[in-house]
Amino acid sequence: GTLIPPVPLANPENQFRMDYIKSIAPLSDFDYTQEFFEHAKKLWDDEGVKACFERSNEYQLIDCAQYFLERIDSVSLVDYTPTDQDLLRCRVLTSGIFETRFQVDKVNFHMFDVGGQRDERRKWIQCFNDVTAIIFVVACSSYNMVIREDNNTNRLRESLDLFKSIWNNRWLRTISIILFLNKQDMLAEKVLAGKSKIEDYFPEYVRYTVPDDATPDAGEDPKVTRAKFFIRDEFLRISTASGDGRHYCYPHFTCAVDTENIRRVFNDCR
């Protein structure tokens, strides 16, 4: 997408660096040279680029961009070896269906990973034969973002609509859903920064109060607690409206790059 109004580079001398990056961006087969890393580092230091990054909810930017741009010096080393955290931060759009088997405390998991983009959803139904449960992953930090397919549809509302269509699907009415309310770390960052208010995208948030039985994490800011339980309850409103006692929704607050958090969640899912 294009920012309106556009953000100029703070240093006009970086224009040739931007032109270089734009020239290689469409290439599907590209070797990351030292020249690339040098240009990327200089651009990331440009205040105009930083201002553009601050408005990243207005266009499509991969979540891990800041993480790796801040680590250009280590990533650009000839003998660079990714850390576990580097690998966890990598993001690739899921296209097609990927089958994975793994074990957590002697319990076998057989998982099918399917893409969430609109044009991927028609491939799903073949995965749902004889499944024990559906894991539905929500990016909670996406409340102020738009989907990749168009610039008018809010990502979190799209997730709610998709959840509703799966929950009410007549073929899935006996299959429970494990709801991963993911990217809690990024949600907290956005809420505490105060630049993008949830009520600007979900007006009903103004009237929302945290349930009495809600348990915040230790030391958690009340604003973060309210935000995450609001999102949880938006999904639970759908599941409690038409569950019919035949399938259930089990919500979990998750942070996929926090291995201990995910380990606890999968232990709960057994």
UniProtKB/TrEMBL annotation:
Chain sites annotated for binding Mg(2+)? T94
Where does the record place a coiled coil? none
Q: Which InterPro entries match?
A: Gprotein_alpha_S, Gprotein_alpha_su, GproteinA_insert, P-loop_NTPase
Q: Does the keyword Signal apply?
A: no
Q: Which GO terms describe its molecular function?
A: G protein-coupled receptor binding; G-protein beta/gamma-subunit complex binding; GTP binding; GTPase activity; metal ion binding
Alphabetically ordered keywords of this record: GTP-binding, Magnesium, Metal-binding, Nucleotide-binding, Transducer
* Keyword DNA repair listed: no
Q: Record's Gene3D superfamilies? A: GI Alpha 1, domain 2-like, P-loop containing nucleotide triphosphate hydrolases
GO biological process terms held by the UniProt record: adenylate cyclase-activating dopamine receptor signaling pathway; sensory perception of chemical stimulus
Residue sites binding GTP per the record: 88-94, 113-117, 182-185, 256
GO CC terms, sorted: cytoplasm; heterotrimeric G-protein complex
> Where would you find the membrane-spanning parts of this chain?
none
Question: What Pfam families does UniProt report for this protein, alphabetically?
Answer: G-alpha (PF00503)
Highest taxon listed in the record's lineage: Eukaryota
By sequence similarity, the record places it as follows:
Belongs to the G-alpha family. G(s) subfamily.
What is the protein name given in its UniProt record?
Guanine nucleotide binding protein, alpha olf (Golf), partial
